[in-house]
Amino acid sequence: MTDYVQRSGPGRVGQVKEITSLANPIIKDIKALTNKKDREESGTFMAEGLKLVIDALELGWTIRTLIYAKAAKGKPLVEQVAARTVAHGGLVLEVSEKVLSSVTRRDNPQMVVGVFEQRWKSLAEIVPGAGETLVALDRVRDPGNLGTIIRTADAAGASAVLLIGDCTDPFSLETVRATMGSVFAVPVVRASAEDFLAWQKRSGAQVVATHLAGAVDYRTVDYRKKPTVLLMGNEQSGLPESLAGAADRTVRIPQQGRADSLNLAIATAVMLFEARRHLLALDGTE
Fold first, then answer.
1. Nearest Cα to 224, choosing from 146, 147, 130, 159?
2. Element containing residue 156 per DSSP (H, E)
3. Which of 131, 134, 217, 261 has the most CB atoms within 10 Å of its CB?
């Protein structure tokens, strides 16, 4: 049997390639997307799971390749996604579970994987309006933290996540997994600290930074006056003085127990839901 064959016919999506070999060059290229360098060079990334692929397509993301396991063949939603992929000029691959496991590096992989084009916003495109909240992260390094923050930002209704300095890749397989699909819904921006500070001055937003030296309780800040940027520091070293000193308010989350700090994703969630509390009341009251 050849590595792949092209097939079509009644009830089948056209332009489907069946791949059985781990040595197939197409599979090798997709597996390479686990490396940041290859993601950057190709401008693409992987997302696992049928729901994530459907969400991405619904939100207008460009799919390059759809990979599904033989066991998923014939399932209506998979066939629909495959048809949409072909309609948008993408490639559809039907593979064995062994091949799929090699792609995702999981023993029990999701039955569907999509390869999408990366999408970045520039700082110039971010113009905060009334009632908007953004999250700015300085040198976040942990993929799980970043993915959880993007997911939380989506849940809280934040407008964007700004990545300052040398941050982990939001399009790594680990980060995308942790976002649970929110990477497709929340705009992501990358910028240097200098560019962020210049943007801050012209943005019209108030920057509220968390800092261990902050003397203000985060709950006492008025988050209603202006659009708000929540500025969060690196997991180990926190915010540098150059960023903390430029913030409009420097706050702290009070703690009572023995732990000397919160996980970055947890601290960001606490800040986000407080900053947007007046907009999130279930009954419409504040």
1. 130
2. helix 143-156
3. 134
Which residues are CB-neighbours of 182 under 8 A, at least 6 positions away? Answer: 150, 151, 153, 154, 155
- Mark whether 131 and 88 lie in a shared domain: no
Provide the β-strand partners of residue 116: 45, 63
β-bridge mates for residue 161, sequence order: 135, 188
Residue 286 lies in a domain: no
The domain of 160 spans: 123-279
Give CA–CA dist 9/92, Å, rounded: 15
> Tokens standing for 139?
């040198």
CATH number for position 65? 3.30.1330.30
pLDDT tens, 44-97? 999 999 999 999 999 999 999 999 999 898 899 999 999 999 999 999 999 998
Q: In the block, which residue shows the tokens 């180990």?
A: 236
Asked if pLDDT for residue 12 goes beyond 50, the answer is no
Please tell me the distance from the alpha carbon of residue 177 to that of residue 279, in angstroms, as a whole number.
28
Q: Return the DSSP state at 157.
A: T
> What size, in residues, is the chain?
286
